[in-house]
């Protein structure tokens, strides 16, 4: 660490502290690892590299490393000058099938390549040339510096910079603020007011919502975690119908998916009171210019909902939206603090599943700008430390995915849950005033039914449908 190259030093946010702790001590290279894969024809490599370097120069968080050894409170260090890590490969001499196999192999190996969190830039780009005018590029970064919102922000800015450089025009970007401004804002918040809200919001919750009814029977306790992903893509017609329904009834897509997941958790856990996690953007509305700051703001909060099975689905969702909006003023609160204010013992997790609505409408913003840069978003990979994660990717065709620990859940069970979600979305559009108790469910898996019957005597309050 050369002092003359240091621009700033300040503390971590509570979320960053938690990510740093888990990353250092869980010995898992793929934890908190983001990887996105894109394809692009007719790419100007010189402009590509220059545009990304401008982004590194523009955003302090992309020039940030972390220092934690021999100090009580870890620090993040912003460097003045950092060169973008860019690796380039030329595979034009390979046959197409060999290119595809090698690409999959490379993507997998890149996920296992550990980020040294003390380094000055915790992201890397890989540019692979497949033909004279066609490329794949892989953008990998650590969650401790940027979240999904920031990834989308950075890519949008990249496209704008690339287009401006390609046409010898002025780069059309307004000034941004450093991530430190958010850290300073956090330190000014009244934690006592926050504590009152969360104690009331979680009053009466003593245990997390169980997932035992949908887990594998006879799991091996020694088997290592292995995360898989199962995805469904809704048609553009269904996606448009959901969006129109949401607008008509003044609901957000996030509310609809949160509500459906809560209802399904009630079904699968046999409980009326549900506790799950909800990932929020975490960007405070009273911090001017916050929408242009790159960094990690996102937070996962516990959502405790009561399911009244006599209530029509639409009115219940409208009530849920009010509840979700109320958490907005407190969404910066560290999850560890919330856990301590709840009645759930520290040796238990608050929840084992969460819902996240990602901000990756890449095809939309590229199309809307009418840009000549034809980048296509092929896939995204992210690992968290929760066993069951419902991830929604808004686009012209809505993608709904589960990232899950295959040690604990069968692929057939996950596929059945995705079918349940799709069916409930269709039911919501067709008959929004249907009582929750009359909602249909698939999941005909005999193993699940048998498991429920075997565990019915456990004393858990039964969700009667």
Features:
five-stranded mixed sheet, 465 residues, 20% strand, disordered C terminus, 13 helices, globular, six-stranded mixed sheet, single chain, alpha+beta
Topology:
Layout: E1 6-11, H1 14-25, E2 33-41, H2 45-58, E3 64-67, E4 75-79, E5 86-90, H3 96-111, E6 123-131, E7 134-142, H4 148-166, H5 180-187, H6 191-201, E8 227-233, H7 236-248, H8 253-269, E9 273-280, E10 299-306, H9 313-326, H10 335-341, E11 353-357, H11 362-369, E12 376-382, E13 388-393, E14 399-405, H12 411-430, H13 446-455
Parallel strand pairs: 5-6, 9-11, 11-13
Antiparallel strand pairs: 1-4, 2-7, 2-12, 3-4, 6-7, 8-14, 9-10, 13-14
Helix pairs in contact: 2-4, 8-12
Describe this structure in words.
The protein is of the alpha+beta class and 465 residues long. The protein is 36% helix and 20% strand. It contains 13 helices and 14 strands. The chain has helices spanning 14-25, 45-58, 96-111, 148-166, 180-187, 191-201, 236-248, 253-269, 313-326, 335-341, 362-369, 411-430, 446-455; strands at 6-11, 33-41, 64-67, 75-79, 86-90, 123-131, 134-142, 227-233, 273-280, 299-306, 353-357, 376-382, 388-393, 399-405. The chain has a six-stranded mixed beta sheet with strand order 8-14-13-11-9-10, covered by helices on one side. It has a five-stranded mixed beta sheet with strand order 5-6-7-2-12, with helices on one face. Strands 1-4-3 form a three-stranded antiparallel beta sheet, with no helix packed on it. Helix 8 crosses helix 12. It is globular. It starts with 5 loop residues before the first strand and ends in a 10-residue tail after the last helix. Residues 444-465 have low confidence and may be disordered.
